[in-house]
Amino acid sequence: MELFEMNWPQVAALNKDTPVVIPIAALEQHGRHMPVFTDSMLLGEVLRRVKESSVKERVLFTPLMWLGNSHHHLDFPGTMSASPRVYMDLLIDMAENMIYHGFRRIIFINGHGGNIVPAQQALFELRQKVRARNDLLLLSTTYWTLGGKPYEVDTSLKQQQVGHACEYETSMMLRIAPHLVGDLTKLVEVPFGVAFSPAHRAWITKDRTDSGHIGDPRHATAEKGETIFRVFAADVVKFLERVLAWDGKSWDA
Question: Domain 3-245 falls in which CATH fold?
Answer without folding.
Answer: Rossmann fold (3.40.50)
